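Entry 14: structure prediction run for 60S ribosomal protein L27. Input pasted below.
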Amino acid sequence: MVKIYKPGKVAIVLHGRQAGKKVVVIKQLDEGTKERPYPHAIVAGIERYPRKPTKRMGKTLLARRSKVKPFIKTVNYSHLFPTRYALELEGLKGTVSSDTFKEVSQREDAKKTVKKLFEERYQSGKNRWFFTALRF
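Run finished. Output tokens:
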């Protein structure tokens, strides 16, 4: 079987609360785990995208509108749609793992680090497609 969901691959969630949102695969689990015997992936995505800046905006308004609200979750492969895009985020690999989901405080800390990394990536202007919503 060809591995489609490699770490760094951008995909779109098809089912559930975050349906239609873009995610980046952090870790793929092709054989599954004890709790989830089916193949799935640990992903980090954008729940609320940054809003479009305009020329007239000041620095504070730009800073407020460029915020990103992330989410992390495990998703079944059949609920993901792969895209041709990839996103290299080395900081994410150590941040989110299977153990992150066991305790709420670990999950919140992981979300904060993901948020920081996503906002830095957005501010630098890289991967513009990832930070725009599919539909307006």
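Notes: Residues 104-124 form the longest helix (21 residues). Will compare against the previous run tomorrow.
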